[in-house]
Amino acid sequence: MRYGNIEADGYLRATLVADAAAEALFMPPDGSVAYRQDLDRMRFRQAGAWISNLQGFSDDTPADNTAGGIDALIALTTGTANTALGVRALLANTTGVGNTAIAPDALGANVDGASNVAIAPGALASNTSGDTNLAIGLGALANSVTASQSLAIGHAVLGLATVGGNLGVGYRVLESLTTGLRNAGAGTQALSDLVTANDCAAFGYQALLLATGGSNSGFGASVFSALTTGTDNTGVGANVGATLTTGLRNVLVGSGIDVPAAGTSDYLSIGDAIFGDISAGNKGVRLGGTGDPSGQNEILFGTKGNDDDVEIASFETTGTNGARTRIYVGTRNPSGAVSANAGSVYIRVSAAASGMFVNTSAADPGTTWTAL
């Protein structure tokens, strides 16, 4: 049976298509029944109409649901507190509760997922049973089926992700991610190429744009923009680490701060003023100068090489022969063992013997030390 355009004193205007057993119900604002006949699981298709509180239209349809658009919430059985506005929005939803879908095909495959929000065509379009997801933007979280607790705001954000617990905000953020976990990106194309890696954070325009390795963190526009398979790197500042591609465990702070080479690992630079080798067993740090911890006008803290000597200071052009002199602290007798420029000082701290030595080599560097 077909009911054409129906108007009941301005209370409802709709086009309803139903089977022959379906009949119409109208409930004016004053609560009185203007016209009522039983409905047999009527399926509503609206043309320019909003249908609110579907229980008012069908005795077997739960309360507190709102639908507007062709086939919106058409399969609903026991789900409550759902809102579907748009063609095929929440199309397959039967028992899901507390979902909001605004736009064509938003949450279109959802069956029993709960507390999801999808705004824009195709947002969360494949979700069937995932809960507490938020997707705003064309195709956001479009491939997520059963995953929960993801947030995607922006065009194609997390569009291929099949697991939950990720966050993306901005144009094409995390657009390639499929099974990676606990990743967060904000800014145009941040973490755009990440696929399966975990525990990355990128905030800024094209931050970690090409990264595929895990446990990287970047804060600033174009931070680690060339990084690919490198892992465990941290960068703070615009254009930080522009050279780095495959290096590991680097820490860079300050606008434009970079590593010496594409594959550098365990390198520390803070504002090109504090440098360090932060590899296991070394942890050398230099204040001042340039390059690795061996430049001029520097103070160093940390183990040098594989011995037990610690270089604590370096001074340029003050040695006997006009070369760099250094101050060391260690446990060894430096004579014949520690090579340094003339005028360098070695302070020995040892239970067996302690003392101070000065390098008196005739040529730089040398291993001749004289006890003071």
Structure explained in plain terms:
Among the domains are: 97 residues; 82 residues, no CATH class. The chain is rod-shaped. Helix content is 0%, strand content 25%. A hairpin with a 6-residue loop joins strand 19 and strand 20. By secondary structure, it is mainly β. The N terminus is likely disordered.
SSE map:
Layout: E1 2-7, E2 13-17, E3 25-26, E4 35-36, E5 51-52, E6 66-68, E7 83-85, E8 100-102, E9 117-119, E10 134-136, E11 151-153, E12 167-169, E13 184-186, E14 201-203, E15 217-219, E16 234-236, E17 251-253, E18 267-270, E19 274-277, E20 284-287, E21 299-301, E22 310-315, E23 325-330, E24 345-348, E25 355-359, E26 369-371
Parallel strand pairs: 6-7, 7-8, 8-9, 9-10, 10-11, 11-12, 12-13, 13-14, 14-15, 15-16, 16-17, 17-18, 23-24
Antiparallel strand pairs: 1-2, 3-4, 5-6, 18-19, 19-20, 20-21, 22-23, 24-25, 25-26
